[in-house]
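yo, Carbohydrate ABC transporter permease is done. seq:
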Amino acid sequence: MRTTRPRSGDRVRWWVYALLALAAFACLFPLYWMFIVATTDTATAIKLPPEIVPGGNFFHLAGLVFSTVPFVRSIVNSLVVAGSIGVGQAVLCALAGFAFAKMRFRGRNALFLFVVLTMTVPTQLAIVPQYMIISSLGWVDTLQALIVPGLANAFGIFWMRQHISSAISDEILQAARIDGASTWQTFWHIAFPLVRPAAFVLGLLGFVTAWNDFLWPFVVLKSPEMYTVQIAIKALQNSFNIDLGLAMSGSFLATLPLLVLFVFVGRRMVAGIMNGAFKG
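structure:
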């Protein structure tokens, strides 16, 4: 029986693996260095040549983190905010994307163009009017001040609109209307299940973005019991000096939930991104 030798073009060159290994090292080394600093002190962190072996102070510094700021409450607050934003973006952006992709109404293209153009506006420019609105609603120093503005965004609407346009045919929706399904039933029972992987990825991106957000929570939150995890890390520093070991311990503890999340859903996230990349 003849065996077919792989063609030279089908074999992956050794340098491809070398580049991938180098890229993986570049991505993982900051996390490793953060853990090293989280187990040492400031003097060790700035020493040259740098230490490459973790120290033995991690649990001591982690205990200082929990005793200095309400870190557990901050993690819970971040989970509530990031989880609400992730779910909200997955559903609301899919709903808006469905309207722009499959519904016909006057001004649809102009409105979608306006939504896309809002992505060119820097986030910092919206802080003052957004704070004025939140203040008039009496939401300053509350979690809804973080959740409500993040429930939908222009990128998510654009993402879902493009995916729905290519993934769902008009014939399927017409058949649902002939069977008597309402617009909401058509979306929820037919369109949304078909684009659920893309919505899942969008929700994860929204979760991670909300978890890492610092500027808006720093502006709107005042009391320690309302702090998110990023603001709690800022509270570990005083105005005159920075304890790098303490700050990096808080940063490493704040990163652990994201690492656990990626371990469980990383494969599904990559599959959802690739599924959206090769549609149409």
